[in-house]
Amino acid sequence: xxxxxxMRPNATGTLDLTTDQDQLSDxxxxxxxxxxxxxxxxxxxxxxxxxxxxxxxYVDPAVGNALGVDxxxxxxxxxxxxxxxxxxxxxxxxxxxDGCPAGxxxxxxxxxxxxxxxxxxxxxxxxxxxxxxxxxxxVLGATADMTEQKSAVVARENEDEQRTxxxxxxxxxxxxxxxxxxxxxxxxxxxxxxFGLTExxxxxxxxxxxxxxxxxxxxxxILVVSLADAExxxxxxxxxxxxxxxxxxxxxxxxxxxxxxxxxxxIPPGQTIETDRIxxxxxxxxxxxxxxxxxxxxxxxxxxxxxxPEAHLVSISDNGPGIDExxxxxxxQPFYIxxxxxxxxxxxxxxxxxxxxxxxxxxxxGTISVDxxxxxxxxxxxxxxxxxx
Length: 389
Hints:
This protein is of the alpha+beta class. It has helices at residues 17-20, 63-67, 71-76, 90-99, 147-190, 199-231, 244-255, 277-293, 325-330, 353-363, and strands at residues 44-49, 56-59, 105-113, 119-130, 136-145, 240-243, 261-266, 272-275, 299-308, 311-318, 367-373, 377-385.
């Protein structure tokens, strides 16, 4: 719906709403092939304004359903839309919507209050239509209802927060009674003669201590995962330049407890990397331990370094059974165990190792991926940026 016909664009500033819309990607991020088409949906509307936030030249008739403002009213009063904007956001809306000389912004999110008091989230995007001399003729924009997307994000955040709180509280409650058990077991086994323990009693207490230590390890790993998301953005990495060759050597020394495991280290001598040593070390240990646990003798693990113009690449390869496609898609999810049919208590497995490794690498601004071929082995690749944000 155009304003006064005399305000329609002339030949020097023709607005082709069928072609100019192509420059407006779906503001909600869902490009479903019907971006901003008024005839197809009332959740997305097209509008045209004079530069500098002036009068409305064209308003999609669907604006009444989407924004709760009649198109005629909006054309008659350019400020009518402000009354639909949530009171808490009117000032910022006016600054962003009317304050840009060229009327351009990548994305503007705001809430509106419909006549029935329903609150909806909207997202708008605009760009300028210019003539051959680069003068702004009109501002073409699209506004989309993104309430569903916002609700989904909030729901996920709430779910994540509830899960984190549950794991934190459960871990704390389990550790509280476990600590004195471990303490008394240590005292008794450290001086069995003082407590008059027989050899049989010592064997029983050894088993109890082993089980208690295993339980403590499980609780600690659950706590690590639960705190990882909560600490994101709060605890910053401690950057330092370290020897990658030495870090890998330390990983192998700590984790390699089996005689049937051999390692090859293909890292240039003297290769250094700026990173947080603790996070990268923990990630390497988790990946290496995972390779050993899932491989049958003889196990061979290869550590290799390469680089890209903007990233360090560290890969850990094994000759294990490989990982099928279904498992690869979920292998970094907490508590996911790909081969549950072969689950063994001896491993003490929870499906947390690779989830912890992924979170550690993400704290460093990097990524971790896996390539695998069944019956041949797997390769985990850590990609770390050379420059830190």
